[in-house]
Every structure is written in C-alpha cells, then in structure tokens.
Amino acid sequence: MLATHIVASLFQRFPIEAASFIQKWRESDNIWLRRTAILYQLKFKQNTDESLLFDIIGENLDDKEFFVQKAIGWSLREYSKTEPAAVVQFIESQKIEGLAKREGLKWLKAKGKL
C-alpha cells in the first residue's frame, strides 16, 4: 500500500524530487527502502520507466531476502501485463530463478501466453 499508492503518487507529482529519493533508496542497506524503489512503479503500466525498473531489479537480484525477491517477482508480473516480451527477455537474460521468476511469469502462464 505504501509503495504502490502513497509513494507512487508523491513520486508522480514531484518527479524531480523523486529521482533523488529513488537513487538513495535503491542504494540503501534497508531492504524496505530498496523494496519500495522496486515496487513504486507497480501500477504505472505503459508509463513505467522500463530501464529504471530493470536496473533496480538487476541491482537486487543477488539479495536472497524473501521480501525483496517477492517484490521483484510482483513488479515483473505486473509489468508483464503491459510488456510481456520485455519481461520474458529480461528474466531470461538475467537468468532470474526461484520466487522472482515464478512470480514474474505467473500471469503470463495463467493466461496461456507462455
């Protein structure tokens, strides 16, 4: 709720200030700040900054923390509804496995698109 609604709304309203926070949060040792950096674009659909999303996910792929891996999968699953080919290509090129991959491909598999 916090990341996908409140933070997302603030970041959309104040994009210049948002960039500074995103940069700090994605580099943080705090998993909740990094998780928020992964998730804040969750409902942006075609307005998702794909490059930024994939960069932040890439920075967190080696983190085995459940909530980080879940956030990666959740963000990929939601974005797969908008750009399925990009998500599949990203998962394959980054060799994403486990929870993040299962969650990331869940919607595509359910819809028979894989």
Structural write-up:
InterPro entries: ARM-type_fold, DNA_alkylation. Pfam families: DNA_alkylation. This is DNA alkylation repair enzyme. With 114 residues, the protein is mainly α. The protein has one domain: Leucine-rich Repeat Variant (Alpha Horseshoe). It contains seven helices and no strands. The radius of gyration is 13 Å and the shape is globular. The termini are far apart. The model has no long low-confidence stretch (mean pLDDT 96).
Architecture, according to CATH? Alpha Horseshoe
The biggest sheet amounts to: none
- The radius of gyration over CA amounts to 13 Å
Determine the mean pLDDT: 96
Indicate the CATH class: Mainly Alpha
CATH topology assignment: Leucine-rich Repeat Variant
What is the chain-wise order of helices and strands?
A: HHHHHHH
Instruction: Tell me the structural class.
Output: mainly alpha
Shape: globular
Output the number of helix runs. Answer: 7
Beta-strand fraction estimate = under 5%
Low-confidence stretches: none
Range of helix content = over 70%
Counted up, domains total 1
Distance between the termini: 29 Å
Count of strand segments? 0
